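Human: I would love a firmer grasp of how sequence relates to backbone shape in proteins. Could you go through the record with me and say what the backbone is doing? Here is the record:
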Amino acid sequence: MTIDRSHLERLSIELADAGKLIEAGWIGYRLVVMHPDAPLVQLEECKLAFFAGAQHLFGSLMNILDPGDEEPTEADLRKMDLIDKELRTFAEQFALQASKPKGSA
């Protein structure tokens, strides 16, 4: 199945404007990663894990950012850079894993 990335981007913007950014991410994840015939229990468990990860990240951000400042502090920016680095490393590893040939020769 070919994924129309421009459609996913438009959908993400629409859902984000409606307060559903995490839902947009879940839809993209489901389309790209999950088998179209995945059983309902797998979809439910994966969605739970996806949203739990998003909740963890958001809750953690709210707890680790310096309180009281309208603008991000240098420490805030450093923390965000570290999160960015961690997620980019994950994405690179995921892309490598997804590109490995399956089966045997």
